[in-house]
Write a structure and sequence with these properties.
single chain; 190 residues; mainly alpha; elongated
């Protein structure tokens, strides 16, 4: 997608704001275990934070907000849409929306949904999981073919080993016969 020049500038400004924005911590949360980190407005009568003094902790205000034009957008510049069924695709525009497929979907339904999405030309944000699933399914399908091929190879190897085993047995028998004949000769001499 070609992002509008102004939108691109605002997106870069948004990333800059996110880096610069302080982490708003509740006052005294670093001092006491019982006081959690999540932000609460300070209400003390002598509070430096409430009075917005330099010595106080930074508190959230409107100036930290991102530009409205790029608010709630994915870093790619698309608006995210959560998809579970093909019916959810109605009214979505591939130039504006990028899709996030539900992780609750099974492989069978996910594959059908992916085919439909590719037909319509949408961008998928969490394709990594789906791609892994597809590769796993292909691997399982291939494994069936591979297993059959391996079984055939093993059978061929077993036939080859049996021939080798027969030759080795013949050699062992010949050696045993020689030893037996030698021992018989020794026994007769005594």
């Amino acid at each position: 997608m070609k992002m509008h020049k102004d939108k691109k500038r605002l997106m870069s400004y948004r990333t800059h704001l996110q880096k610069v924005r302080p982490s708003f911590r509740r006052i005294e949360s670093w001092r006491y275990v019982r006081v959690k980190d999540s932000w609460r407005k300070s209400r003390g009568i002598d509070s430096k934070t409430r009075r917005k003094w330099k010595a106080g902790v930074k508190s959230p205000n409107i100036g930290y907000r991102t530009p409205k034009a790029v608010r709630h957008l994915h870093p790619s510049g698309f608006t995210e849409a959560y998809i579970i069924t093909p019916k959810d695709l109605e009214g979505l525009n591939p130039k504006i929306h990028a899709l996030r497929i539900s992780s609750r979907l099974g492989a069978k339904k996910r594959i059908k949904l992916l085919e439909l999405i590719e037909e319509k030309g949408f961008r998928i944000l969490n394709l990594g999981a789906a791609q892994k699933e597809l590769e796993a399914l292909e691997e399982i399908a291939d494994r069936g073919v591979i297993l059959e091929e391996e079984e055939e190879l093993e059978e061929e190897e077993e036939v080859g080993e049996e021939e080798v085993d027969d030759e080795e047995e013949d050699e062992e028998l010949a050696e045993l016969k020689e030893l037996a004949s030698k021992t018989k000769k020794r026994g007769k001499k005594k």
